[in-house]
Amino acid sequence: MWFGTNGGGVSKYDGVTFANFTTKEGLCDNTVSSILEDRGGNLWFGTDGGVSEFDGKTFTTKEDLSNYIVLSMLEDGEGNLWFGTYGGGVSKYNYPRKGEVESFETFTSRDGLCDDAVLSMVFDDAGNLWIGTNKGVDRFDTSGYKKTGKKIFKHYGREEGFIGIECNQNAVCKDSKGDIWFGTVKRVVKYVSKNDRPNMVEPVTHITNLRLFSGDVDWSIYTDSVSKKSGLPVGLELPYNQNHITFDFIGVSLTIPEKVRYRCKLEGFDKNWSHIMREAHVTYSNLPPGKYTFRVIACNGDDVWNKKPTNYSFAIIPPFWRTWWFYFFCMMAGTGIIYTLVKMRIRNLERKRRILEEKVDMRTIQLKEEKGKVEKINEALKKIKDELEMRVEERTSELRVANKQLKKEIAERKKAEEEKEKIQAQFYQAQKMESIGRLAGGIAHDFNNLLTAIQGYTYLSMKKIDRSEPLHKYLGHVRDATVRGTDLTNQLLLFSRRHQMEFTSLNVNETVDDLLKMLSYLIGDDITVDINLQPDPWMVWGDKGNIEQVIMNLALNARDAMPKGGKLTIETQNVTLKKKDCEVIPESRPGRFVCLLVADMGIGMDGETVQNIFEPFFSTKEVGKGTGLGLSTAYGIIKQHEGWINVYSECGKGSVFKVYLPAHSTN
Predict the structure, then answer these.
(1) Burial 618-636 (b: 16+ CB within 10 A, else e)
(2) What CATH superfamily is the domain 500-662?
(3) Confidence band (pLDDT; 50, 70, 90) for 423?
């Protein structure tokens, strides 16, 4: 058993103990006025703060109510819930079915409810909703609303026999006979459904009086006859200034005559029927001249209207200045005045025309005389103009030639300055690499002599010491270090061009073919090698081992630039360079060359890196992962072969190395 309290929430009694639920447990307010269990077993609590749904575990507060003070609750036959609120009328909660979204509908005094303070509710046997308020009881036609969407309320007050007027909260019930009992402030009122019969008799309407400016009138002034039945004037025609008219009428209904209501319409003035009103009179002011018919209908307390309206016709006569004959007289008078004015205007224009023609003739003679003077002046001006145009054309031609010569000199000077800067940059780079080569060569030569001595003494010591001695192992490490040092000094000697080479007539294609197997082993499976060799390449004068070293170093450099794999391209081409070609290829010279191209799809290099890659010991790799001598060694070998190397690279777009080796004269 559940109990709602005033300020203490709700309490549940299980036969032994009480369990209390308040806002701490999720209830929307602690003042509970009504409790309802729906067909799904959920409990609903109407409070001063809204409605809470309880599924046995948690409370859920429903939003979108018309008012949050909920005093009464009902469930209809379809499972929808009706909430009576104090100040917000009735809210209907449309219980969501499968695939639907929950929604609320509101019914207030704007829709026809007599009062928005709802104190009690009950359904009768026909499914109509009875709503108890502070101003009586209303019956809402739920079935009609479901079919048509119209909100139809029937009110029961003192006139209908509901004497108590002000209902008590939730003091309502329906007995076994279908009659409904209402508890009011002073008494109990019983509604007997079988005695409630709608009044289907149409009321009878009559127009009882006609007034001008709200006062009674002696109609003999305006008409010769008055209807004996209604007392109204027959064939009434009023002057234009008697246009403030009041109609008095009555609707006769013997059942609750106080509930009779009216609608009226003045044809010729109103477009639509008036709104429903209780007043039995209506006034029209400032009516314009014209013919009118006043119509009125009435309905009883059960909204039964009489089908045939009561009519009264009359007319308001326009003043003389708004009659047709006055308009015709004004039109004729206006036409005569306009005709006279037009004739006067024509005579005046004719006189001005003659005067103007005389002036034009005189002016024409003067213009002819002036024309002769102007023609003489124009001839003189034309001669001056021709002379000026000739002088301007001569001067313009001279300036055009001078401007063309100036543009040519500027372009040649700009080109010469660019060529000068290019040559200076190449010269500085060559001097820099030459200086580095001399320094590296001198150091490498002396250092190689020292390494040779150390290596010799190490071999002698190792022969005299037994292999089982720890010292023999240490001397082996010294020997290995001297071997690596010798390799480095040999690479420096190659860069400084002090290394002795054995030059022979060499086919670069054969050199590349000999290296393919080793390259595929060193480069790995994640890099594809694309070989494009020139058919019948020119022979070059070179050292095969050193050329192999160049190809190997460039290929390994490309491999390191593609840590995630990619494509390595090796090409050979026969190239003949002319003087014009040397302007765009750095360090080049005219002649015939074999071009060896090595390209990768790696990370690329910026401009600063490209400027420094051929310097000894320069490397972009981490410390300990390279000597920085691979490209500098290749550079030294190519220089010893009287060739050069160009680099083309952008960050993220890979690099291209082009090696130019002079073709042998035997070709």
Answers:
(1) ebeeeeeebbebbbbbbbb
(2) Histidine kinase-like ATPase, C-terminal domain (3.30.565.10)
(3) low
